[in-house]
């Protein structure tokens, strides 16, 4: 194709040499043109310099990339020549004929044809001769250059020069007359000899056919080892051939009838007959992109038939997908109430064509087959939202193909997996309601061909869509449909690995399921309870690793339902029984977390939360439910919570719960409080025992029972006993720093209750504790922690002194406020 295939440096060198010649000759050409008004012979000199300049276009040293740069520089100079010639001969066009004849005597064909094309354009612009004949003459003369690279650029220059003079007029004399009658005043009327749009179509189609032949010929010139390089060069030049189709599509007078009868048949004939995969694939794609959607709809069958005649190496999948996507976009964006023409036949036509294509190409990769179905599903759900059978038909066809190929486990992140993900996501995005997928029975069957990770990804995408669209489950059918679609996230699967529950994806997916459960919203309380109970049974089969994520939302929904139902006591005769049944269901669900999931802290928190909820609802024997929840929490604390830090944290939660409850009778409250004190004293580490006892002491001061009628218990004797027990344990600690911390904490606790008027707190006992703490501070080694404890001790002592002053002031105020007795009479 070109003789020198050296490196870029060599190409740059040859290009620089040619451009220097072009600039030098163009300079002389322009100088001659500027002097033509003084000496008419200078025009011929300008043409001679133009011929010398165009001789550089004969080079065989440049690759297509660098030849294009030379071509652009030369064309710029030829445009200047054309402008000057039009200005010179516009007034005396008769003299232009001699110039046209003189140019034909140039020896080299490439410079001669470039000048002939230029002067031919000047002829047409000056109104000389028949435009139709000139165009026909020029396009036929260009056959003289059969070198692929030079011929392509020559014919491209022909298109560029004649772009503005191609006749784009009505095709008959009658239509021409009507066109001239509608012209505005001052606009020149068209002449019959100027040609019609038919002449332009013939001109462009001839040029297109010849350029395509030259382009294809490039593939077969040169050694076979340079095949890839030739293909790369061809791809760089493809736009030159496609420009012809763009020009045809830009014709304003081109009608649908002309496109159907003349334009498309000629284009398809040339594409099919060239038998070149690169040319066929590119040109078919050009046809799809450049011509109007109405034209495609009118010639859909012919175009698809031509696709079946293309070479086996042509990726027809890309062509069909592009056509389907474009027509789908066109039909969906059509004016409301005005369905696009032949819309009802689109799906049937493309579905049949896709089936035929897959049948005729047994070696077609599975990822291409799935990608083809992606476009079909997109067409079905976008253009026919009410025809779910179309989408289901597409999924069924794909399932049959997968079965025939014997594929059973598609990798989620492979080529096929990525296309299958796109396919399955389309209905989710378009329907805006995942529950509609239950009406596509083939959808789940196709999804099951995924491996475990792929199924989980699709199920997660469904849940995200339901959360975004707030897809509410109103009845049992909705819940069953949703659970069947996301079953891969609810139960262990055969394709699931043994360690899948240890991954971050597993936790994220189960959290999505947990959020989904809050969308269960029935129209009444009874139905809501039945739905939650049904969901609990289904989720209970998910395995121990899932229960920790999926059961807590059910429990909280039950608590929410209890609070919602608590205001309907007068509306339901079985109100107490139903409330109790809800708590029984919640308790059984929490029990599954203990027995099946083998959890401790989470179910304990849920028990305590249930106790607070039950205490807020004044149903019959609610104190027994509160007692049962708290007792089960304490049982877990004693038997299942092992880590010392966890035990301390859980004990604090239990204390907080008992302080929140206000409707427990004394007989129920005391056992729970005593058990809490016992749990605090049984902490593994002595410092934890001390801190826990200090916390538990608050129960007997701030706690409330049914008998206290909303007043705090303030059992100072019990508080002091617990604090003394804590002080005794603190004295047994052998670490000086830890012992000092415990003493300071006890001192703060004593001070707090002393400030709160706890009469059982003895000031002498506090002074004794201060003395022991100060003696202990002397024995501490010098350190930052010791300094910090010393500051804390000073602050505690200062606070105690202030408390003494406040108590003394309060007592004095009490004495002064007592009424004086009347004096006896004298």
Automatic annotation (TrEMBL):
Location comes to: Membrane
The biological process GO terms on file are: protein transport; retrograde transport, endosome to Golgi
Report whether Lyase shows up as a keyword of the record: no
By its UniProt entry, which InterPro entries does this protein fall under?
A: ARM-type_fold (IPR016024), Vps35 (IPR005378), Vps35_C (IPR042491)
Domain of life (superkingdom): Eukaryota
Q: Which UniProt keywords apply?
A: Membrane, Protein transport, Transport
- One Gene Ontology cellular component annotation held by this UniProt entry: cytosol
Coiled-coil positions are none
Q: Which residues cross the membrane?
A: none
Q: Which SUPFAM superfamilies match?
A: ARM repeat (SSF48371)
Membrane topology value: Peripheral membrane protein
Pfam families, per this entry?
A: Vps35
Query: What is this protein for, i.e. what is its function?
Result: Plays a role in vesicular protein sorting.
Q: Which family does it belong to?
A: Belongs to the VPS35 family.
Its protein name is: Vacuolar protein sorting-associated protein 35
The root-end lineage is: Eukaryota, Metazoa, Ecdysozoa, Nematoda, Chromadorea
């Amino acid at each position: 194709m070109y003789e020198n295939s050296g490196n870029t440096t060599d190409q740059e060198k040859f290009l620089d040499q040619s451009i220097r010649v072009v600039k030098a000759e163009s300079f002389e050409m322009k100088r001659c043109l500027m002097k033509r008004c003084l000496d008419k012979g200078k025009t011929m000199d300008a043409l001679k310099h133009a011929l010398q300049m165009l001789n550089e276009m004969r080079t065989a040293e440049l690759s297509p990339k660098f030849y294009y740069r030379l071509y652009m520089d030369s064309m710029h100079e030829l445009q200047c020549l054309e402008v000057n010639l039009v200005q010179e001969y516009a007034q005396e066009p008769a003299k232009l004929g001699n110039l046209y004849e003189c140019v034909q005597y140039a020896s080299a064909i490439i410079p001669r044809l470039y000048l002939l094309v230029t002067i031919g354009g000047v002829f047409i612009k000056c109104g000389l001769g028949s435009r139709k004949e000139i165009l026909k003459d020029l396009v036929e003369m260009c056959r003289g250059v059969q070198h692929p690279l030079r011929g392509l650029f020559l014919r491209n220059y022909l298109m560029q020069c004649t772009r503005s003079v191609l006749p784009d007029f009505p095709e008959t004399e009658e239509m021409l007359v009507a066109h001239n009658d509608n012209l505005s005043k001052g606009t020149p009327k068209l002449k019959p000899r100027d040609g019609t749009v038919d002449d332009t179509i013939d001109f462009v189609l001839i040029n297109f056919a010849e350029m395509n032949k030259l382009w294809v010929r490039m593939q077969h010139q040169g050694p076979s080892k340079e095949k890839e390089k030739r293909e790369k060069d061809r791809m760089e030049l493809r736009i030159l051939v496609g420009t012809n189709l763009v020009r045809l599509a830009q014709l304003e007078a081109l009608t649908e009838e002309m496109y159907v009868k003349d334009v498309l048949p000629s284009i398809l004939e040339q594409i099919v007959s060239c038998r070149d995969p690169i040319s066929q694939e590119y040109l078919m794609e050009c046809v799809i992109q450049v011509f109007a959607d109405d034209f495609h709809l009118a010639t859909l069958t012919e175009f698809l038939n031509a696709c079946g005649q293309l070479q086996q190496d042509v990726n027809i999948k890309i062509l069909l997908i592009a056509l389907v996507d474009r027509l789908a976009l066109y039909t969906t964006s059509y004016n409301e109430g005005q369905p696009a023409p032949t819309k009802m036949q689109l799906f049937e036509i493309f579905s049949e064509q896709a089936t035929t294509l897959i049948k005729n190409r047994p070696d077609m990769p599975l990822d291409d087959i799935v990608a083809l179905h992606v476009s079909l599903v997109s067409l079905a759900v976008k253009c026919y939202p009410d025809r779910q059978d179309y989408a289901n038909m597409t999924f069924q066809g794909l399932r049959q193909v997968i079965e025939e190929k014997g594929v059973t486990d598609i990798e989620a992140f492979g080529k096929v997996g990525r296309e299958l993900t796109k396919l399955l996501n389309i209905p989710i995005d378009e329907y805006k309601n995942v529950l509609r997928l239950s009406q596509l029975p083939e959808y789940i069957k196709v999804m099951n061909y995924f491996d475990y990770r792929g199924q989980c990804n699709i199920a997660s995408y469904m849940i995200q869509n339901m959360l975004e669209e707030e897809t509410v489950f109103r009845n049992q059918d909705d819940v069953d449909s949703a659970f069947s679609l996301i079953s891969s996230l609810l139960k262990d699967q055969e394709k699931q690995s043994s360690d899948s529950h240890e991954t971050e994806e597993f936790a994220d997916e189960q959290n999505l399921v947990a959020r989904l459960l809050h969308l269960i919203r029935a129209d009444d309380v009874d139905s809501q309870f039945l739905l939650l109970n049904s969901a609990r049974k289904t989720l209970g089969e998910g395995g121990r690793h899932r229960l920790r994520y999926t059961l807590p939302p059910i429990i909280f929904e039950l608590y929410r339902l209890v609070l919602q139902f608590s205001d309907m006591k007068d509306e339901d005769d079985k109100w107490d029984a139903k409330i109790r049944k809800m708590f029984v269901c919640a308790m059984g669900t929490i029990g599954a977390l203990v027995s099946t999931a083998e959890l401790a802290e989470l179910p304990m928190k849920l028990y305590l939360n249930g106790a607070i909820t039950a205490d807020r609802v004044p149903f019959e024997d609610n104190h027994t439910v509160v007692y049962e929840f708290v007792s089960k929490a304490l049982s877990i604390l004693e038997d299942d919570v092992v880590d010392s830090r966890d035990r301390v944290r859980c004990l604090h939660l239990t204390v907080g719960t008992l302080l929140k409850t206000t409707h427990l009778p004394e007989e129920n409250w005391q056992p729970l409080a005593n058990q809490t004190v016992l749990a605090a004293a049984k902490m593994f580490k002595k410092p934890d025992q001390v801190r826990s006892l200090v916390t538990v002491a608050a129960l007997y001061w701030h706690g409330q029972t049914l008998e206290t009628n909303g007043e705090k218990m303030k059992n100072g004797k019990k508080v002091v006993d617990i604090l003394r027990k804590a002080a005794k344990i603190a004295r047994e600690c052998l670490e000086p720093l830890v012992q000092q911390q415990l003493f300071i904490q006890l001192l703060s606790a004593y001070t707090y209750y002393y400030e709160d008027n706890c009469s059982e707190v003895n000031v002498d006992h506090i002074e004794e504790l201060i003395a022991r703490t100060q003696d202990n501070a002397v024995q501490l080694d010098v350190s930052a922690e010791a300094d910090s404890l010393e500051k804390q001790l000073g602050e505690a002592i200062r606070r105690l002194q202030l408390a003494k002053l406040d108590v003394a002031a309060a007592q004095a105020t009490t004495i002064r406020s007592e009424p004086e007795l009347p004096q006896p009479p004298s």
